[in-house]
Amino acid sequence: MLSGCAALESLELKENLGIGRLCISSRTLKSLGFCVDSRYGGVFLRELVIEDAPCLERLLALDPKGGPATIRIICAPKLEILGMLSEDISELHLGRTIFQKMIAASLKTKMHSMRVLFLSSAGPNLDAVVNFLKCFPCLEKLYVIFQSLSRPMDVINNAQKYDQLGPIECFQLHLKKVVLKNYDGEKRSSINFAEFFLRNAKGRKEMKITLPYHRQHNWFADLQSVLRYQLRASPDAQIELRCGTRDCFTRNKHTHDLSMDDPFDMPSIGCWRCKELGLGDTTYKV
């Protein structure tokens, strides 16, 4: 059916039932948004295959917990925006590169077209994010939204152990913007995560960090002093800190707006507590 739609550019697949495996083959499709709804039982989409999509630029999961178990991208040479990827995707195939629940099982394919990447990370998990970065040497924007760990005793080690390895290519010139959502500035693992990008991303121009809860000004001052020390890789870059904004990015409403350069670049709604206290726009810059 898609092959016969000679003018189709944007497609959304929502709450798919009755189809276990879907192959996409379209010479004109530029944007594909999808999610799966398994609440009502029956057959639901288990595998999405991008078989032949030479014009596809965006592959957007509309709900990080509503993706098919397996995604295979076979031919999408112009793909430049990908997300939101999460551990709920059991297998992700990017050419010959394979991720299993966000863990790299094989890193054999690099996609130079990829410009924007959005990851949903438990922990946060620096290992998983770094392996994705290795696949996309020309990446310009990275979004990471942190999810709570399933158990309080789960601890992810985000020690900085990549400095002695070969350089991550996008760090040298291309990666200009890093956005961290639902950031927990009280956890050492989260602070290590942010510091890693501050120390190593030489081309970075800005980092935006939003916390899911309200914080007082003096708390931000302490965090600013910690992060300011790590500005060595890109001393002219700016860091913006905001509080009280819990983001989920589910059901992205801008899938069809192809005029948007980045469908994930949405303004924050701000902290309700700061507004209640009459503090207005509480954005702290480092």
UniProtKB/TrEMBL annotation:
What InterPro entries does its record include?
Answer: F-box_dom-containing, FBD, LRR_FXL15/At3g58940/PEG3-like
Q: Which domain of life is it from?
A: Eukaryota
Domain F-box/LRR-repeat protein 15/At3g58940/PEG3-like LRR, which positions?
A: 1-144
Q: Which residues form the FBD domain?
A: 165-208
PANTHER family, per database record: OS12G0595200 PROTEIN, PTHR32141
Q: What is this protein called?
A: Uncharacterized protein
Give the species this sequence originates from. Answer: Aegilops tauschii subsp. strangulata (Goatgrass)
